[in-house]
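Minutes, project check-in
Item: structure for the 503-residue chain
Input as provided by the requester:
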Amino acid sequence: MSHVPDIYRILPELILSLTGVAIMLIDASLPPSWQRRNLGWIAAIGATIALWASLWQLSLPEGTGFYGTVETSAFTVFFHVLICGIVLVALLLSLDTLPADSHHQGEFYALVTFGAVGMCLLTGAIELLVVFVALEISSISTYVLAGYRKNTGRGPEAAIKYFLLGSFATAFLLYGIALIFGATGTTQIYAIAHLAPVAQNQTLVVIALAMMLVGLLFKVSAAPFHVWTPDVYEGSSSPVVALLSTAPKAGAFAVLLRIVYEAFPALHAFWAPLLWVVAVLSMTIGNLAALRQRNVKRMLAYSSIAHAGYLLAAFAGLPHIGIAAATFYTAAYAAMNVGIFAVVTLVSGYEDQRPLIDDFRGLVYQSPVLGSLLIFFLISLIGIPFTGGFFGKFYSFTAAVDGGAVILALIGLLNSGVAAAYYLRLAAVSAQRPAADEPMPERPRVGIAVSAGLALCVAATLALGIVPNVTLHAAQAGAQTLQAPAPDMPTAADPSVALGSQH
């Protein structure tokens, strides 16, 4: 068995951490009168190097490091690449939209990179205490980013609501970790999988799982733990929402997959019906509430709640099918959601000068490229063929049907029809010719950085819709590795486990 240095197991996190520290040191050493925009390019370069390091990890033998607390596998690499890609696009979007005179601009880029450290660490952690630490690293950064726009009351309001409700959710998660430790004597995920079924107090195990699910479902804004989402999306700046709505959720979904499929596979009869109900609530509440919205960002917030439900439908499938479908959907949703928020940022501006759906009237005539891209991403969110959204929903509902949840798949299809109403309403307004006497707003300025970010989102959405097999095979490879080791194999609870050993 080849020995792999532990540091290789967290190489992307290390690169992002060093990038964030470098940004803060450079920012502190620059005169106050100098602009900090170039610090964003340093952050983007760091995210690109971290993405490359994530792909390089595929050459490592699958295994664990740091005394069995972190893991490198096809599953972790998939989410590392996804999160680094999201962070890169969000940074490119911020470079061209963040006001040059905004204070503490260097701290903005440092917070994004530090938040990415926690998100990446979430996906590779196989020790619940490391999961908690990673979740806090990610959450604290995003709490500050949500309130970064301080010249309006909505920014601090969004940050306070996000912080308070997020703290409650984190408390649930931490309490669940404490309870499972009391029931099994360990917080290592693979050891829990072996010890939970034979624990003396099964009620304690079930309560622990329920507590952890509450904390994680809050992070993915699934109903009924979604109340923070519309206000935070509306109050935060659009570049921040592009990041908040995708990268933290990707990390949280990765942990959720680990918890239910790796740590508690024996409790499938408990968590599967529970997630079934949460999926239905998320789809229905999200879509019905989105129908009533006139604010674009609030509409997309409720849309994200519905998409969390579509993704959770895959959890009703058989393990390998459900994991692969959920993983694929996470990638598809990230591509199209970051893309549409990039368009919203360019049209509405950093200060949200055009927040309402009616403000997008005539966008196709005002800026044909942005109008066409808006309609393209809306079509993908609906789930029209040849877009990533179509195959995301197809694989998710197929997994539900294969798992016997036919009714859940039918409810998902009906909700997709409801969602088409508000997506098409925005598309129709943007394609509507403005009146002759109506003043035409100034055409948005599209810089090089945001153009590159939009191009990446379009390419990813098209690739996932036209040639989905590449990503699906990567998701399936990750699903194969996401399973608890055989009972006779050593776990991190055993002192004989060597660093970097394969599970």
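Outcome recorded: Confidence is low (pLDDT under 50) at residues 486-503.
No further action items on this chain.
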